[in-house]
């Protein structure tokens, strides 16, 4: 038997608790990393889409194009 093998029930309980705590710590670290690795790119993409929408709206305003119902767009000078 190895020197670090538990000799009593109390030793065994202590070893199991330590292992469970280590596993929980590793799981928590992985979970945080996974959550960050998924949300960070989504946040970046959302921000870029918002910027793109603002830029398109600015360009439409500069070109004198206004949005009607739906997706039809006409120059503001041709409005009835």
From TrEMBL:
Report the main location listed first in the record.
nucleus
Q: Where located?
A: Nucleus
Name any one GO molecular function: transcription corepressor activity
The biological processes this protein is annotated with in GO are: cellular heat acclimation
Q: Which residues form a coiled coil?
A: 42-69
Q: Name one GO cellular component term.
A: cytosol
Q: Does the keyword Coiled coil apply?
A: yes
Q: Which keywords annotate this record?
A: Coiled coil, Nucleus
Q: Which Pfam families match?
A: HSBP1
Q: Which domain of life is it from?
A: Eukaryota
Q: What does this protein do?
A: Negative regulator of the heat shock response. Negatively affects HSF1 DNA-binding activity. May have a role in the suppression of the activation of the stress response during the aging process.
Q: Which family does it belong to?
A: Belongs to the HSBP1 family.
Subunit text: Homohexamer. Associates with heptad repeats of HSF1 trimers and probably also HSF1 monomers, and with HSP70. Association with HSF1 trimers and HSP70 coincides with attenuation of heat shock response and the conversion of HSF1 trimer to monomer.
Q: What is this protein called?
A: Heat shock factor-binding protein 1
């Amino acid at each position: 038997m190895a020197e670090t093998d538990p000799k009593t029930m109390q030793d065994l309980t202590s070893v199991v608790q330590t292992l469970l705590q280590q596993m929980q710590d590793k799981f928590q670290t992985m979970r945080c990393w996974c959550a960050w690795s998924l949300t960070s790119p989504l946040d970046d993409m959302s921000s870029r889409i918002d910027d793109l929408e603002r830029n398109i709206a600015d360009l439409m305003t500069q070109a004198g194009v206004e949005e009607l119902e739906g997706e039809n767009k006409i120059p503001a000078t041709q409005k009835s």
